Amino acid sequence: GLVCAKINLNNAKWWAGTNTSTMARGDGPLAGKLNTAIIIANQSEGNGTEYAARLCNEAIITENGQSYGDWYLPSRDELLLMFQNKNIIDATALANGGQAFSLAIYWSSTEENQNTARYVQFFNGGYGWNDKNQIGRVRPVRTF
Question: Which residue numbers in the chain have pLDDT < 50?
């Protein structure tokens, strides 16, 4: 199964300061995990700023006394699944001390090319690509 965090992480850029082709092009369900590893291997610490994949990879979220540290930046299709279930996720998150999704653009781990990566709009479910140096929302996922 797949579960998303009940909170947004810090807003972030997709990249760590370098436009490169990471080859993180997986787009389907569960592709985000490998994409995240590829992005981090390519970008490393970069210019020292936090970026979307690194934020997810380094997140430690504790729920009911259990800490989870296996989060990753979702692929575009994983974000679309989250959008399709947005009302249920929002209600569950809010009932358990979390946050609803912002009506904003969320970064996916799916790269489009050297300069751009894919996002999903949580105000209408649309998707596209944006420059990697733009700020976007970040909501991690993990498998169970």
Answer: none
